[in-house]
Write a structure and sequence with these properties.
The complex is a heterodimer. Chain A contains twelve helices and 14 strands. Chain A is of the alpha+beta class. The two termini of chain A are 35 Å apart. Chain B is an alpha/beta fold. Chain B has one domain: 3-Layer(aba) Sandwich (Rossmann fold). Chain B contains seven helices and eleven strands. Chain B is globular and about 50 Å long. Chain B starts with a strand and ends with a strand. The mean pLDDT of chain B is 92. The chains are: A alpha+beta, B alpha/beta. The interface between A and B is medium-sized, with 30 and 34 residues. The complex binds adenosine-5'-diphosphate and magnesium ion.
Chain lengths: 384, 230
């Protein structure tokens, strides 16, 4: 081993000599990184998961508008729709909202449909008769109900519908299924008292993705009262929600960055007399300025890189094994029925790089720069 | 005369232009003969340390020329100055300047860390020097645990590790009793016999009164008073 290798070795021994100081620094550094990357991991996992689930949604959802409000849509539209060039599969959907006074929460009631078979993440099965239902994790938890338990919904003045829970969506799909109650189509139509020739909305697939907006234009032309919602718009909306929610989280993020900067600044504003003396000695016994800077670089880099990865691992475990327990309270505003979300480990490498450059680089620089001032001055100071 | 180092009209001003400006030495022209022991003698504040630092390339003079092996180093950029310092000089500082927390072995090898010297060769050199200075048993001991005399021997070992032609020592006996001071002189004369040029700055008569020390440069108020006949 030569030159640089030995300087690295010496950097390690220098760190070991100031065990207590360096250990405290590394601990603070790791915790800050853990907080920062927990935030990044969690928001990214949320976003990825949501967008992935949205991916299964149809190209166009057609709603009927009346007086600017969402109305039930006549199913006879389907005939006209299938005549439009480029249109693929068309299906009516039946769903609605239900305010549960028992638990003070809004549920989304939905009829079983084709697309839903894609959500395989269920314990039990989908409802097959009008007296069966499948519910989201959040609903089940709120009602403290499990598989095969009774589940009743109040329809009006002292009347209720009694269902049996035959399926529960698992937490993995919580973002979309948490507040869901899935029933058969007949059960749902009866529950909401919907006319037989109406649906809540209509989903339309488009064979060629490039033609989606053209198809939407034709639909609007054929049914001026309708509003086609494109998947791309939906994704954009969700993106915005995330960006907005992300704002709260971002505030935290910058809080942590600020804490980090104070920490770096504290280091940058001074090397103590002992360190200065040591730099002088090294220079006096023949080390070049660049050798001293190499040493300081490695001292900083070892602490920063070790702390960075420790923090990263802590965050990974926190978010993906402990479901971000420490962050959850901050994110409660995310949904009325906060999903007990078990995020899948999606990681954005780009974000990790950015975090690396925002933390490790300033930290190392903060170690090198003040030493640089000491290292360029004449070593004769150590003679006094 | 074969001079390793020669100065021509060297001055050093500290804090130039400030209220506390000090002219530490002025118009010093001396020669350090090769292979001998030279002593800078003079009272405290007379400029011995400053001159030692200048000839050892620790800093640059405000005026004048300093020739090391015939080459003027007064205006050399920092990097080259370091290089000359590393190749030519070994320093024994007044306060030893060992690095606390490191062992004897680490302190001694420290000057070689940034060099390309092969690790095994480095070890061999270190062992040899530790043996010569009777430090082998202490090799793994942290330097702050050693006595003053032992610490000085570590400082000597460190000064020797890069096999310099010239060894510079500043007030080497200031912290030693008579016995240890004699020991130091013995070590230094051995090194001198081995061919090293030695320069000692001191105001200790125990050193400059030794009959075999025949090249004394006497300083007063930053100037050379007289040079003993060679
Ligand atoms: N870095 C410095 N800054 C200001 N004054 C200095 C500095 N170094 C030395 N001096 C002054 O220069 C003079 C000579 O000092 P020095 O070379 O240490 O003398 P000696 O070693 O003979 O005691 C003294 O007056 C001292 O105070
Ligand atoms: Mg002095």
């Amino acid at each position: 081993m030569k030159g640089n290798g030995r300087i690295i070795e010496y950097a390690l021994s220098t760190l070991a000599r100031r065990k207590f100081k360096n250990f405290s620094v590394a601990a603070v550094f790791s915790v800050l990184i853990a907080v920062l990357s927990s935030i990044l991991f969690l928001t990214h996992a949320y976003k990825t998961e949501t967008l992935k689930l949205l991916d299964n949604s149809p190209a166009i959802i057609l709603q009927n508008m009346s007086g600017g409000r969402h109305e039930l849509i006549p199913t006879e539209y389907i005939k006209t729709l299938s005549g439009i060039a480029g249109v693929g599969q068309i299906a009516p959907r039946y769903w609605g909202y239900y305010y549960d006074s028992l638990t003070s929460a809004n549920y989304t009631l939905m009829a079983v449909d084709e697309g839903m078979q894609d959500v395989k993440l269920i314990e039990g099965r989908m409802p097959q008769t009008d007296t069966e239902c499948a519910v989201g994790r959040g609903v089940a938890d709120l009602r403290q109900a499990g598989l095969k338990d009774d589940f009743f919904l109040i329809t009006g003045a002292e009347q209720s519908v009694n269902l049996k829970i035959v399926g529960i969506f698992t937490a993995n799909s919580a973002i979309l299924t948490n507040d869901l109650v899935v029933m058969t189509k007949d059960g749902l139509v009866k529950f909401f008292n919907m006319p037989a020739d109406r649906a809540t909305d209509i989903t339309i697939e488009v064979n060629n993705p490039a033609e989606v907006s053209m198809v939407a234009r034709k639909i609007r032309h054929a049914f001026p009262n309708s509003r086609p919602i494109l998947k791309s718009e939906l994704i954009r909306t969700y993106d915005n929600i995330f960006n907005w929610r992300g704002g709260i989280v971002l505030t935290m993020f910058f809080g942590a960055i600020a804490a980090f900067m104070i920490f770096v600044w504290d280091k940058a504003t001074g090397i103590n007399a002992q360190e200065r003396q040591e730099i002088g000695i090294l220079k006096a016994i023949g080390w070049e300025t660049s050798d001293v800077l190499t040493l300081k670089f490695w001292e900083g880099a070892v602490v920063a890189i070790c702390s960075f990865f420790t923090g990263l691992i802590l965050a990974y475990v926190h978010v993906f094994y402990f479901n971000a327990q420490f962050l959850a309270p901050v994110l409660k505003g995310w949904s009325v029925l906060f999903p007990r979300f078990e995020p899948m480990p999606y990681i954005d490498i780009y974000q990790i790089f950015v975090l690396f450059f925002l933390t490790v680089v300033p930290y190392v620089a903060a170690g090198v720069v003040p030493s640089w001032k000491a290292a360029i001055s004449d070593p004769d100071v150590v003679m006094r | 005369m074969d001079a390793v180092i020669r100065t021509e009209g060297v001055s050093k001003v500290f804090n130039a232009g400030l209220a506390d400006e000090v002219r530490a030495i002025a118009a010093v022209s001396i020669e350090i003969p090769r292979g001998r022991i030279t002593v800078f003698k003079g009272p405290s504040g007379s400029g011995k340390t400053t001159l030692l630092g200048l000839i050892g390339c620790m800093s640059r003079p405000t005026e004048g020329k300093i020739f090391v092996e015939g080459k003027d180093v007064a205006k050399l950029p920092e990097r080259f100055l370091t290089n000359v310092r590393r190749k030519t000089f070994g320093f024994i500082f007044q306060h030893f300047n060992l690095i606390r927390g490191l062992t004897v072995r680490e302190n001694v090898m420290l000057p070689l860390y940034p060099t390309d010297i092969d690790g095994r060769q480095m070890e061999r050199r270190m062992e040899e020097i530790l043996d010569k200075l009777d430090l082998t048993a202490k090799r793994a001991v942290k330097v702050e645990k050693l006595s003053g005399g032992q610490q000085q021997r570590v400082a000597i070992a460190r000064a020797m590790i890069n096999e310099p032609a010239v060894i510079l020592a500043d007030e080497p006996t200031a912290h030693l009793d008579t016995k240890l001071s004699e020991d130091f002189l013995n070590i230094v004369t051995t090194l001198n016999i081995d061919g090293k040029t030695i320069v000692i700055a001191t105001h200790d008569p125990l050193i400059y009164d030794k009959p075999y020390i025949d090249n004394i440069i006497e300083m007063r108020d930053g100037a050379v008073k007289e040079t003993a006949p060679l």
